[in-house]
## 1
Amino acid sequence: MRKIGILGGTFDPPHHGHLLIANEVLNALDLDEIWFMPNQEPPHKHKSESITNAERLEMLKLAIEGNQQFRVTTIELERQGPSFTVETMRIIRETYKDDQFYFIIGADMIEYLPKWHKINELVDLVQFVGVERPEYSHDTSFPVIYVDVPAMEVSSSIIRERLKKGKTVRYLLPDSVIHFIEENHLYGT
């Protein structure tokens, strides 16, 4: 039985914060792999209008290349409509019956868990892993394993804003992702 972490998100663009979280959880919980799962239409936010799913997928593949324990799953990109985690996890669990799954969420999402679509069913399908951050409450009635990850105050929205203004994003993103963004004139570059 493999132990697989799933890190979902828009990855618009994927950055070193995503990679840091994935690597820390992988090692802290002795997982076999981390699957990066780009969302189609996350119910709680909107993706950039100008960036295609294919471009987000390519940036994510570039970001994780070279790490044999990191994979990309396109299950949510292949589906239409809003991406509800419970529906995705039903499909994954049906396909990979012998594997154990750990769904990685940020500290901000721990507080939001009671509002997740069909949360009571979801906790039977997956083990939640919360990335600890001191500024957020970790109080929840749901089973969450906590992993302490070094703070890295970077977000895709900050990166998009910097790119739009022509400012540097060096050391916030893998160089391969920066080159892809520049070559394809993404985010206003």
## 2
Amino acid sequence: MKRIGILGGTFDPPHLGHLIIAEETRLALDLDEIWFIPSYTPPHKTSAKSTVEDRISMVKKAIEANPSFTLNTIEVERVGRSYTFDTMKALRDAYPMIDFYFIIGADMVEYLPKWDRIDQLMDLVTFVGVKRPGYQLNTPYPIVEVDIPMIDLSSTCIRNRLYNRKPAHYLIPETVYSYIKEKQLYENR
């Protein structure tokens, strides 16, 4: 049976932290692939700072060098708020012979009790928690823990740097950085 890791998020923009989490989880759990699933509108955020088309393009650029990474646009195609239960139910129905592993940071592990239909979701997918500075992997729900190199990096941090005209080299893939500069994303105009 194929084993697929799911890394969802706004990816506004995708950064090296996302790639490190994906690759370290893939290796630690011997997963066949990692599917990056950009959300249209995540339930815990009001909106993304860049368009969904730009975020998809940036994810494509960020993952192009790793043949084990794939873009899946299921949540974008659905439009509107994205709930993990709906996504995982659709994926399980479409791919019944795949074991899915949903990768979340420690900040989201603590938030699991508030997730939509969390008890039913636990029957659809194995959750993988990765450590993040300032958070513990404490939850009443069963999760697989994966140790990764600690990097305190967020899309918000990168957007703020770019907005304030500070460079973001070495924080995001150069292909993504070039795309952001070309499209003038996140700039203080």
